[in-house]
Specification:
Layout: H1 2-13, E1 28-30, E2 35-37, H2 50-56, H3 90-99, H4 130-133, H5 139-145, H6 147-150, H7 178-184, H8 220-225, H9 236-247
Antiparallel strand pairs: 1-2
Bound molecules: 2-acetamido-2-deoxy-beta-D-glucopyranose (NAG) (2 copies).
Organism: Caenorhabditis nigoni
Disulfide bonds: 158-192
Keywords: Disulfide bond, Signal
Length: 250
């Protein structure tokens, strides 16, 4: 009876448990009050079944890692210890990354998600959502500027704008479809300008000058983070007038 009561109490209390991501802070960001998982922490798929991962890496507090929450990872995701503080054990982490990166909230460290973004991305890489990763409007820009946000690291900056081009490869040869595939199936049909160059080589166009005129506002660093330097909404002259040094515009 006592144990039944305590289970009932525990089940009422469980959602209230203030979880804290301990031990390994990869794939998290600080939201002002707590470390929480980034969208890229859980954007990939497990290699083995989700059900198996849930057994191997059962959540200590019933809640599993998800974008924006601070659910504690299973200890086995990164250590052989069974309680925190726990010493980091590389083998355990490698096994988790190989088999259950999503359940452990480690997707951002898998090969597809682990690369550098452009220096001056046109959008804020940290806040890209899964629906943007699948959006016709965003995919090609993300592949070039924020490949790590959507698992595009192995695509060399070149992805299809729509996600189902591969279902019918004949469209690449279909004369009537050329405008469409050039715009939407550039990866599948080999239409990217340079599909072999790595996205990490994306840089802001700069001339050959060795010094730049001074920035005229102290906001340039913050603006650059938000993509000001590459945002074609502003003309090159406007960007140069404000932030020539930060944006490296001759
Ligand atoms: C991130 O993971 C690496 C190994 O995968 C580990 O050595 C490092 O300590 C972790 N960083 C943080 C901030 O937890
Ligand atoms: C940060 O995340 C925690 C845990 O999910 C949440 O309780 C808190 O409200 C968040 N704070 C802000 C400022 O978003």
């Amino acid at each position: 009876m006592i144990s039944l009561v305590s289970i009932l109490i525990a089940s009422f209390l469980a959602p209230e448990v203030s979880a804290v991501i301990g031990g390994d802070l990869n794939c998290t960001s600080y939201n002002g009050t707590a470390f929480v998982y980034t969208p890229a922490a859980v954007a990939c798929s497990n290699t083995i079944s989700d059900a198996s991962c849930a057994v191997l890496y059962a959540a200590p507090n019933t809640l599993y890692p998800a974008a924006g929450n601070d659910a504690q990872r299973a200890h086995a995701c990164y250590t052989t210890a069974t309680a925190t503080p726990a010493a980091f054990v590389a083998d355990m982490k490698t096994a988790a990354l190989t088999n259950c990166p999503k359940t452990c909230g480690f997707c951002c460290q898998t090969d597809a998600y682990n690369c550098r973004n452009a220096n001056f991305p046109r959008l804020n890489c940290a806040t890209i959502t899964l629906s943007q990763c699948n959006s016709v409007a965003w995919r090609t820009i993300i592949a070039q500027d924020c490949p790590s946000s959507c698992g595009f690291c192995l695509s060399g900056g070149c992805v299809d704008a729509v996600t189902n081009c591969g279902t019918d490869l004949s469209i690449c040869q279909n004369i009537g479809m050329q405008d469409f595939v050039n715009q939407y199936c550039q990866k599948t049909c080999g239409r990217c300008a340079s599909s072999t160059t790595s996205s990490s080589s994306v840089t802001v166009t700069s001339g050959t000058c060795t010094s730049y005129i001074a920035d005229t506002t102290t906001q340039c660093a913050a603006w650059a983070t938000n993509g000001f330097c590459t945002n074609t909404f502003y003309t090159l002259a406007q960007r140069r007038a404000r932030c020539a040094t930060t944006c490296r515009i001759c």
